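Justification of computing resources. Each target in the renewal requires a structure prediction run like the one illustrated here; the chain below, 308 residues long, is used simply to show the kind of job we budget for.
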Amino acid sequence: MALSIVQSATMKTEQFRRLEKRLRGKTGKAIADYHMIDEGDRIMVCLSGGKDSYTLLDMLAGLQRVSPVRFELVAVNLDQKQPGFPEHVLPNYLESMGVEYRIVEEDTYSIVMDKLQPGKTMCSLCSRLRRGVLYRTAGEIGATKIALGHHMDDLVETLFLNMFHGSRLKTMPAKLVSDDRRNIVIRPLVYCREKDIARFARYREYPIIPCNLCGSQNNLQRVHIKNMLAEWEKESPNRVVSIFRSMQRVTRSHMLDKDLYDFAAISTDKIDDQAELDIAFDPPADLVPARSQPATSRWREALKPVSE
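Resulting structure tokens:
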């Protein structure tokens, strides 16, 4: 028998609540694990009009109500003057939420298009220009932190991009000092999966603004990496989660970076407490639960209503 309209609506509401609870709990845990927010912070939330940044703002606004510390939120959107950009969408949405916001108008689109060479992608230049404007804006509005909406899948994709195309083992950190050395950048969604964010965005019916500038480039290396990971996930569900957890459990003595570990000092007379000796030959690491940095007690208590 088909479900009634009321029963169907009730089920969807309950599914949404569970999803919201999970995402908010993961966001709060990431904030606690990496000590992203301090008392009195004024956080600039970079809002692009995509599902990730809308969800980021939603999560931070929700946590603001139960946070053990007081902090402010300011949503900032960079209008890059792309043709057809719907200028009214974000102001209308943010006013309906009652969130303080600022729209920054900067014609980076024309600069990128002028410099773009045939067959080349424009993401690198666009990203640098965008960062410069956002860093400047953070100073103008008195922000102490800049929050970005990158999630777990973004971090894993970036890991492989750097490995395949930069020969470096690195990803986007959860927290860092910006290039101008005057801002702290945080990524509160690093424990959240993109598929959950996409589902949440559909439930919330965000007024999504597509980025036609970079979204129209089919030869982006990130797209290839994303497709590769999607195939891996079909063969082995949660492969992305396993890769992400490996980034939290780095064994310096079992990598090959001479600057990271002093191989010349290896001796049986003096054994490094952080070295894992020949544990590399033991059973697969996925049989061992991943370590997690302990959340501060104040955040742990505050997260109980949303994570348990």
